[in-house]
UniProtKB/TrEMBL annotation:
SUPFAM superfamilies, per the entry: ABC transporter involved in vitamin B12 uptake, BtuC (SSF81345)
Gene Ontology cellular-component annotations: plasma membrane
Signal peptide coordinates: none
Protein name per UniProt: Iron(3+)-hydroxamate ABC transporter permease protein FhuB
Transmembrane parts of this sequence: 14-36, 70-91, 103-122, 129-147, 153-177, 239-270, 282-299, 311-332, 356-375, 400-418, 430-448, 454-473, 485-505, 530-552, 616-633, 639-660
Organism: Rhizobium gallicum bv. gallicum R602sp
PANTHER family: FE(3+) DICITRATE TRANSPORT SYSTEM PERMEASE PROTEIN FECD-RELATED (PTHR30472:SF37), FERRIC ENTEROBACTIN TRANSPORT SYSTEM PERMEASE PROTEIN (PTHR30472)
């Protein structure tokens, strides 16, 4: 009996993995055959593939559109699945994927710039442009991480900031040139539509070579599982192994992006499916993840063609629509999800930094005064006159108040979440609350033609708290496991992003309003909102210090936390509510912001605030500074027009953060 148990578990895992591949593949095959028979009878398939002379229109569609699309969906899935598992393994983080290390964002920014300013280059060089953009941003990420020996946290943080900066730059260019960029929205959501076999002939050798190199590199990759110190004692250089492995994964994902656009959820979800279904070793995950990704992307594309015959429905949005619920199902069914992402980023004991906190508080007061009194008006740059103070106070004070309060809330919530999960790339948005608010707004966008302030707030509130309940239910099956919380929340966020891209690509005249809200804006701030936000921020700053013992112990792991008498489940539930409620309110007021809650805690730690209490207040100050500065820049740079603060937090704050990171020890 003792011997039979692991064999039975291994056999059960094998059949789960087989079903996870076979069911989508068989369904996709049936849909493929049915779709092909709508074009040609079975007896004419072979001749249509090999005889191109004097071909009829249906035969040409079969040969140059239908079959290439099937092949590309399978090849792209294989490449995304393998690149996803490599990146997650090398960075030791379940949320890592090609988007995380800047590849997709760089490719998107390059294509946006080319579309707007050099459209001729796209005729024959779209793939080259995408590859060049992705390679440059990924090289920047590697350059920043090189000083830290390519540690997982350094690569992930650098990649996220580069991605946010490039994504904001792309969104800003699209907002300024809205009429020229609808095609880019579709491309950024992934498109598998083909016109000939040129993409297949380019992608097949690329994926093949990268896959062969990855499997040849298996032994050094395995050694990293024991940790960098153990791997170094065996005579290998962990930094070099990580750099080579990431280069292979980046090349593979860049080739896929150049071929079909951004289909990012597959690279995130397929490795998670493989782990949850029972792929225990690295070799098993490297075999099963590509197969799972290929079968799912093939099935998704066939479902698109079956249900949306007359509409170019983006494949990336469809994978999120179908993949997110499936991932929820597997998370509910799984008993354990072991995905170690701890890096020693958090410290329980460190010197006090009270003088530095006072300096931050003074800097915030000074910045607030400058933001109110100094700006750009009809007569150019200058300070406001005494006679104008009363009039401008009605316009500026609510915006400043909302920005200060929301920034502080995002900063504190980011610190709480990163310490609760011991994951330095976790942000308030990752638990799905902001994504749920976006889903609520998108649902309102679909079901009604008029959107007012009250209906927007109600829809966002319902979406945010319904999502929180769902994420807590999923994670509650494993004592509110941080890994399950992050995977479930990321699924919601990815789903919301995909639906937002689909809505923005629809051509609806209301998309300008939707884009402004999704970009993060204080345009519509009122005195009532500013007062409510300030009250919640003060309450959060009053309650958060009561959790400092929990925040010091939780990063040490669940076993140590329990041995020290901590009720882990209850503590996690309290912290999750403490994170979710302010995040939901801040999202309601200014829209989902992806930068502040992620980076404010990093600024705090990089400037020496490593004890929980100091980090909480420093993150609040940094978050408030980032957001009021971005809001001020947004209303002055291109006066009298305005730029959403959410775009500028990443566009301006991202490079600044990277400079500070590159110079810090």
């Amino acid at each position: 009996m003792v011997i039979d148990q692991p064999i039975s578990a291994e056999s059960s895992g094998f059949w789960k993995l087989m079903l996870l591949v076979a069911i989508p593949a068989i369904t996709a095959m049936a849909l493929t055959i049915a779709g092909a028979e709508r074009l040609l009878p079975l007896s004419a398939w072979w001749s249509a593939l090999v005889e191109t002379d004097n071909a009829k229109s249906q035969e040409l569609l079969f040969r140059h559109a239908f079959m290439p699309r099937v092949a590309v969906s399978i090849l792209a899935g294989l490449g995304l699945g393998l690149s996803g598992i490599l990146i997650q393994h090398l960075l030791r983080n379940p949320l890592a994927e090609p988007t995380t290390i800047g590849t997709n964002a760089g490719a998107g920014l390059a294509l946006t710039i080319a579309t707007l300013y050099a459209p001729v280059a796209l005729e024959n060089g779209r793939g080259v442009i995408a590859l060049l953009g992705g390679a440059l941003t990924t090289f920047l990420v590697f350059l920043l991480a090189q000083r830290r020996q390519f540690s997982p946290v350094a690569v992930i943080v650098s990649g996220l900031v580069v991605s946010l900066t490039c994504g904001s730059a792309s969104a800003l260019l699209m907002a300024i040139n809205r009429e020229y960029t609808e095609e880019l929205f579709i491309w950024q959501s992934g498109s598998l539509i083909q016109n000939g076999d040129a993409v297949i002939r380019a992608l097949l050798p690329q994926i093949t070579v990268c896959s062969v190199l990855a499997f040849m590199f298996l032994r050094p990759l395995r050694l990293l599982e024991a940790g960098d110190e153990s791997a170094g004692s065996l005579g290998i250089r962990p930094a070099a192994i990580r750099l080579i492995g990431l280069s292979i994964a980046v090349a593979m994902s860049a080739f896929v992006v150049a071929a079909v656009g951004v289909i990012s959820f597959i690279a995130l979800a397929a490795p998670a499916f493989a782990r949850i279904a029972g792929a225990r070793t690295l070799l098993q995950r490297m075999v099963w993840s590509p197969l799972i990704a290929a079968s799912q992307l093939w099935l998704v594309d066939q479902l698109i063609q079956f249900h949306f015959k007359e509409m170019a429905f983006p494949a990336g949005a469809a994978t999120a629509l179908l993949g997110a619920p499936l991932l929820f199902f597997f998370l509910l069914r799984s008993k354990t999800v072991s995905l170690d992402s701890r890096e020693g980023t958090f410290a329980a004991v460190a010197p006090h930094k009270m003088p530095a906190l006072l300096l931050l508080a003074v800097a915030l007061v000074v910045a607030t005064g400058l933001v109110f009194f100094f700006g750009k008006g009809a007569n150019g740059w200058g300070s406001i006159a005494a006679a104008e103070i009363g009039q401008l106070a009605e316009l500026r004070l609510p915006r400043i108040g909302v920005a200060l309060a929301a920034g502080a809330m995002f900063g504190v919530c980011g610190t709480l979440l990163q310490r609760m999960t011991a994951n330095s790339m976790a942000a308030p948005e990752v638990i799905g609350v902001s994504g749920g608010a976006s889903l609520g707004v998108l649902a309102l966008f679909v079901v009604t033609s008029s959107i007012d302030r009250l209906s927007l707030a109600m829809a966002a509130s319902v979406g945010a708290f319904a999502t929180l309940a769902l994420v807590m239910f999923v994670a509650g099956r494993q004592r509110l496991s941080p890994e399950k919380l992050l995977l479930a929340g990321t699924s919601v966020t990815t789903l919301a992003s995909a639906l937002a891209a689909l809505a923005l690509a629809s051509g609806d005249p209301r998309t300008d309003f939707l884009l402004a809200w999704l970009s993060g804006s204080t345009y519509r701030a009122t005195p009532t909102q500013a007062t409510a936000a300030a009250a919640v921020a003060i309450l959060l700053l009053s309650v958060a210090p009561l959790t400092i013992r929990w925040l010091a112990v939780l990063p040490l792991g669940e076993t140590v936390s329990r041995s020290l008498g901590l009720g882990v489940v209850a503590v996690r539930a309290i912290l999750l509510c403490l994170i979710a409620i302010p995040t939901a309110l801040a999202t309601l007021l200014i829209g989902p912001l992806s930068f502040v809650g992620l980076m404010a805690p990093h600024f705090a730690r990089m400037t020496g605030f490593r004890r929980p209490a100091g980090e909480i207040f420093a993150s609040a100050f940094y978050g408030a500074l980032i957001l009021i500065a971005a809001d001020w820049m947004g209303r002055t740079i291109i006066f009298p027009w305005q730029i959403p603060a959410g775009l500028l937090t990443a566009l301006a704050g991202g490079p600044f953060f990277l400079i500070v990171m590159s110079r810090s020890r």
